[in-house]
Structure formats: structure tokens, C-alpha cells
Amino acid sequence: MRIYNTLTRRKEEFVPITPGKVGIYVCGPTVYDFIHIGNARPQIIFDTLRRYLEYKGYEVNFVSNFTDVDDKIIKRANEDKVDASVISERFIDECKKDMAALNVREATIHPQATKEIPDMIELVQTLIDKGHAYEKNGTVYFRTRSFKDYGKLSHKNIDELESGHRAEAHALKVSGEDEKEDPLDFVLWKPKKEGEPSWKSPWSEGRPGWHLECSCMSKKYIGGTIDIHAGGEDLIFPHHENEIAQSEAANGTEFAHYWMHNGFLKINGDKMSKSLGNFFTVRDICKQCDPQVFRFFMLSAQYRTPLNFSKELVEDAAKGLERILNGAEKLSGIIAKDNKKPVSDKEKELLETELPKYVEKFDNAMDDDLNTADAVSTIFELIRFTNANTDENSSSDFAKALYDTLFKLCDTVLGIHIERKEEKMDDDFVAEIEKLIADRTTAKKEKNFALADEIRAKLLDMGIVIEDTREGVKWKKA
User: Fold this and answer.
1) What is the Cα–Cα distance from 439 to 141, expressed in whole angstroms?
2) Closest among 425, 395, 422 to 329, alpha carbons compared
3) Helix, strand, coil: what percent of the chain each, to 5?
4) Which of 134, 142, 305, 265 is nearest to 210 (CA)?
5) 271: which strand partners?
6) Who contacts 422 (Cβ-Cβ below 8 Å, separation ≥6)?
7) How many CB atoms lie under 10 A from the CB of residue 276?
8) Does the N-terminal peptide bond of residue 356 adopt cis geometry, omega within 30 degrees of 0?
9) Whole-angstrom distance, CA of residue 435 vs CA of residue 429
10) Which of 6, 106, 179, 359 has a C-alpha 20 to 30 A away from that of 185?
11) Model's pTM, two decimal places?
């Protein structure tokens, strides 16, 4: 498998630190509200990466944190007049519900910043002892220039960064609000303000800086060096750049071998923003469309490309997913007959020579920097193949072999369910549908085709699609 490494800006062959095992760290959300659909993209993408690596036989340690102490959480808690932990715990639970709806599997572990404070204090002390950090009136800063490789991930020049900070730093120093040695230095530990959660430390009663959290949690739950560190491209600078600086300065080892970043999600071509009225939570979207459609939409583009979210594109995704569900349903129908027919010579040849080509093409797409767009295209090709080569005379064993392959690629790897969701319908509604179908059957026998068409149209208005088959009339929700 080849992965585009943000650090080197090229695709590289993936070689894990320990053969057969992979440690992945994905930056999770700050839990002060329901997660928005931009948060969902990295969760879906890197859940798919995990699934694919497991499909290839790796044992994956997948760690994704919750930032549960932050200015936004504190602000929300003060507004609601509750403790910050009440807000964070509530929205951790809500986030897990949304992720489950999108078929994002729970991480091996979801560490929370507030539960790892002792390790963070220890890391800060290590950085001070090594001369990479210093304390001023209870605040601890990281000496950015002490880390010679600063900027290697974002490919930013430190002198250019200093130029950009100079005017801002001068204004802060004049006002007495900044005691940093260098305007590029960033906070590792900050003293508490009134009404904020805090923890005791050698420097002040306070809380950790945002960047510090992931360095500690990734080391504790994966190790000093991570195979893959992932997140949205908005985190490259300064968050991931600062993680590298503090981790490598403290540990003396490379922080992560591969860095993967997904592209931005736009709404009708614009950046998502509450002020523009185009801000959507996952909870909002799941009320408007099937969460599986949303996941399928997210996988319809290669993860590094920007993705535009619009009603029309989601509707296209729904139509595409319906083609897959219909193909799977056709195979399920043949399997259910359990016709005991032996696999024919032609079917055997198709299973041995043609079917493996689709699996190989799917794997090649995923091996090419997790190209889910091409993988989805291969799924459509597989559906066309199964539709063209199966009918009521096909053996059930042949259909099952096709179905199992489709399930493995689509459901197991992409996380897209191929079983149509059973919806519980009101008994009276079902009875009305069956009566209309019976009336239509009678009308057709009496050659009253106008009435038969009228009943079909009425059923469609009720959201019911009917299909005339040799076994009789079949119906389903549109």
C-alpha cells in the first residue's frame, strides 16, 4: 500500500514499525456541541483506512481522542451554568451516537484529555529539563527555535513565520500581556482563570495547552513513534506542527512515520459557517437522509481532494447506493431459494477467472493512497457483472459467492451496509398496500389496464414501488 505522506509530500510504500501491527492516531473533536459534518469526514475516512488495513491482515491499534477541556467547552458550560465536565460528557455521548449512525467503529481507545493530566505535567517537566520550555508567572512556553526542524510538516519557514507574528507580538508586549521569549513560542501550560477547571502543577494551578494533549495520549496508548497520524488538513499548522516539535524534543525519536490529512468539506462551494447559514451537524443531516447515504457520499471522493456537499450530490449518492442495494437484494433472493443446484461449469469459470479481477481492481484502488472513489467505481462494475450473470436459473451457491465478495468489499471494508434496512410499517398501511395490489391484479385479469395503471400510480404516491415477477407481485418502499 502506498500512502501520500504530508511530511514528504509524496506517496510512499507503507511499512509498519512492527510487522503485522499498525498504530494509528486520529485527532478527535472538541466536545462542546454536536459534531458537524466537517468533523465527520476524517472520522469516516480513517475508519475506512482502519477497516482496509484489518482486511489486509494487520492488527490495528486505533486511537482517537476527545478534547474535553477547552475554551469553547468552558464558554458553553458558563452559558448553561453547569460544570465543564457536564458539557464534555454529554457531547462525547452524542458524538458516539452520531458515529455509530455513520457506521464508524469505536476506537481501540478514546482517551480524554482530562484523564491524562499527570502525563502531560510530566512531559512539560521533561521539556523544561531539556531546555525546550520555560515558565513565566505560571505559564509554560515551548521554545520553538530550540527545535531545529520546526516547520518540516507544514513546510513553513520559521523566519517567515516570525515576520508574520512580529506586529502582533509587539502589541502584546507593549500591553504587558505577553511574556514570551519569542513570538513563535506556544503554550504548554496556562494558569487558570476564574470559573475554569484546573489541576495542580509545579508551575501553577491551571490546565494544559491544546497541542500537548495529543503528544501525551499518542505516546501512552501507541508508543513514542506512531505509524500513522491522521486528521483534517486544517490541523497541519499549527496543531500537528507543534505536536511534532514537543514530542520529538522530549522523546528524541521521530513522532510519526506517515502523516495523512483529508481535504476540506465545502457546502455548495462555500466554506461551512454559521454566519452563512450553511452549518450542518451530523444529527441534522441524519434526519434528512439515510446515514449510510451520507457515508457513501463521503467515500465518493479521494480523501485528499476537497469535497463539495450539496443536496444534488447527496441525491446522486443515494441513487448510486440504491443500485448496490438492488444488486445485493437480487443475489439475496437467489440465495434464499436454496435451489440446491450444483455450480455450473460457466459459473465456476466466472468465479475463478472473472470475479477475482474485481477484487484485485478494488484492492489496487485502496492500495493507491486509499482511493475510495475508484474503489466505489469498482463496486459498481461488480454490480453490473453480478446483474449480467445471474437470473432465476442461477445456482444459490454461485449467488452466495458473489454476495460474499460484495459484502467483504462494500460492508466490511467501506462500511457500507448492503442489506436494505427493514422498516417497521403500520399493519393497516401494509393491509392497504396488499389490497391495492390485489385490486390491480384483478384489474389486469379483466384487461382493465387503465385502472391497473391508476393503482400503480397511487401506490407510487404512497411511496411504494411494485414489480411484476414470475413469482407474483413484489413491492418495496421507494
Assistant:
1) 79
2) 422
3) 50, 15, 30
4) 142
5) 266
6) none
7) 11
8) no
9) 10
10) 6
11) 0.87
